[in-house]
Fold each of these.
Amino acid sequence: MITNINIREKYDKITEYWTPKIIGELNGQHVKLAKVKGDFLWHSHDNEDELFIVYKGTLYIEFRDKTVTVPEGQLIIVPKGVEHRPYTNGEEVWIMLLEPKEILHTGNVIDEKTVTNLEWI
Amino acid sequence: MITNINIREKYDKITEYWTPKIIGELNGQHVKLAKVKGDFLWHSHDNEDELFIVYKGTLYIEFRDKTVTVPEGQLIIVPKGVEHRPYTNGEEVWIMLLEPKEILHTGNVIDEKTVTNLEWI
C-alpha cells in the first residue's frame, strides 16, 4: 500500500539500541531507523555503500585516519570497503539508514551486536 | 572524500523549483534535494522506486485513485510503474529524493519541466 510514513512515530516504537528496524523498501534497499548509544564495532561492508542521516543528537563515525562528527540534520555516506566505527558521546542518537536489503549492519564482523533478522515497524 | 553533509546548507544553495540537485551517491543511486512549489506533471518510472522525504512544508502526491498528504517529517515511497503527480498547496516545500542515478525526474514524460543534467551542490 502506498502511504505516508511518520518518521517520529516509527522512532517511538524502537526500544533497543543498535537494532535497526525497517520502515520502507525501494530498489532492493531498506530504509531503516535505529536508536544508538555508546560504542559500536569496527566493520566494513565489502559491496555496499551506507547512508546515515542523523535525526536527533550527534553521531560520530571513526575511520582509520579521522573521526567525522555528524550532528542532527546532517548525513554521511560511507563507501563500500571502508572500515568504520559509529559511536555516540554517551547520548541517545536517532539515525536513518539506507542500505541494500541483504546487508548485515555489522558488515564483515559477526558478534553479539549482530542482528540477522531485521524487523519491520 | 568522506565527510558530513549539512542538509540545511545545501537547501540554501537551491534557487529554482522542481530542479533536484545531487548531494550524494550510494549504490548506484543519487541522494537529491529539491525545492518545489505548485504543480508537477503526471508521470511514472518504469523501473525505479522513488523515495520522498519532506523536510519543510507539506507535499501532496496525487495517484489515480487517491491523494496522499506527506507533511514535514514524513516520507513516502512510490513504487515503479505507478503514475503520480506531486504538487504543493501553493507553498514552498523542501524534499529529499532517493532514486537510481539514471532516472529522469519526470519519468516517462519529457516536457519543459524535465531537467536532464542534474547538478551537484
Amino acid sequence: MLTAVSLGPGDESLLTPAARKALERADVVAGYKGYIELVPPALLEGKEVVSTGMMGEVERAREAVERARSGKRTAMVCSGDAGIYAMAGLLLEILEAEGLLDAVPFTMIPGVAAFNAAAALLGAPLMHDFASISLSDLLTPWEVIEKRLRLAAQADFVIAIYNPRSKKRSDHLDKALAVIGESREPSTPVGVVGRAYREGQDVRLTTLDKVDVEGVDMQTVLIVGNSATRAAGKRMLTPRGYHRKYAIGDKGGE
Amino acid sequence: MLTAVSLGPGDESLLTPAARKALERADVVAGYKGYIELVPPALLEGKEVVSTGMMGEVERAREAVERARSGKRTAMVCSGDAGIYAMAGLLLEILEAEGLLDAVPFTMIPGVAAFNAAAALLGAPLMHDFASISLSDLLTPWEVIEKRLRLAAQADFVIAIYNPRSKKRSDHLDKALAVIGESREPSTPVGVVGRAYREGQDVRLTTLDKVDVEGVDMQTVLIVGNSATRAAGKRMLTPRGYHRKYAIGDKGGE
C-alpha cells in the first residue's frame, strides 16, 4: 500500500486528520529530508524512514515503491499538496513503468497547497481565475515557462509563482516579472510569502515594479495580482467580479 | 473577530485542526446553507447560525461582519478553500467599505480546495503549471472567460474548470471545451469529478471529445490535461517534465 501524503504548509494545525491517520498507520515514511522534518516526531516513532540528502527524488520514489511492493504500508510525504508540483505523479510514473499499477494500491491524500497558504496570509488574492507557474527550468525549457508567463499575463490571470529563484537561477524571477510587466501595470500588487506557517514566516505586500528579488528564495511563493487586484489596508484583495461588474450592495448568486 | 474558515471538500477527515478550532471557538457560524450542512453538527451546538436560503451572499457577508463588529467571534464557512472563488474577498471588501479593516480582526484559514480534492481522486493531473477558470458569467463577461480559456489552452496549462454548468447556462461547458479544443488534441485526458469526498462522489476519466456534458453540474470540477497528460491505468497523470525532458532513471532535483 502506497500513499502520497500532503503535509500542508508545515504547521500541525493545517495537517488534515486523513494525513495524520495515514502516517499513524504507515510502516515506512519516505520523503525529502526537509519534508520529514515537518512530520510531527511522534508520528515517526518506530517507523522506517527513507530519506537521505544524497538521494535524488526519483531514487527515493523508487525506494518507496519497492517498500510498498514488498507489502509495507508506505507513506511518501510532501509539503503543501502532494498533488501539486510534487511526488504523486512520480510515484504513478514509477508504478506504471514497473507494471505495478494494479498490484500496489495507491492513494493520494490532498492537502493545503503552498499557494493556498500564501493566499490566506496575504488576504484574498485568489478570488478570481488564476494560473500557477513554476520558474524551475530543470525539467521544463525556459522558453515554455516564458511563453506561459506571457499568455497568463495577457489573460489577466492572477499568477502564483513557484520556485522563483535558486542560486543557479538567480535571474529567473527578474525575467519573469519583466515578462508579466509587458501587459500589467507597474503598480500591480504582488504578495511575497516566505515559509508560510513555518518558523521564519515572512509576508510582504508590494508592487510589480518594487519586488525585492534578492529577498526571495526557493521557499517563497509570489502571487501577482490581476488588473483589478488592489490593496485593502495591509491586505491583498482581488475582487470577485471583473472590473466592478457588481456593487457591494448587490445580492450575488451562490 | 471575523474568521473565514475553509471546510475542505466536506469530509471531516479533510477538515484541518485549525478550522475545527475556529469553529469550536466561534459564537456565530455564518454560511451558505449547503456549506453549513458540511460542518460537523457538534461544532454548531449552542451557536448562532446565520444562514438562510433567501439571503444573497453579499447580505450574508454583511450579517457576519455586523456580528463580528459587535464583538462576537464570527466564523464564515466555505467549502473547499475560503480563499479560492469564495467568501474571503467579499468579507474584506465589506470591511473596507465600512471602514472596519483596523477595527475588526480578520483571519483566513486555508483549506483543501475543490481542485486539490478532484486532482487527488483522479491521480496526479496537476504536476505541472495549471490555470483555474470559472465558467460563471454572473460577475464576469463571457468574452473574458473565453479569452482566458483560449490563452490557457495555447499556453499548454492543465486547466481546472469551476462552475462548469448551471441550468441557466447549460451551453457554457460545450463552448469552453470547444475553445480549448482549438489548440488541444481531442484525445486529451479530462477528469470529471462530482461531489469529491462527499456522498455521491463521482470520478470519471474521459477525453476532450467525449465529455458527458449532461452529467455535469455546478458541484463538478473538470481538469483538462496539458499536451503531455496521459492515462496511467485508470488514473490521470501529467508528467513533471515537459515532453519527457527527463527519464525515470534520472536523478531529479529537489
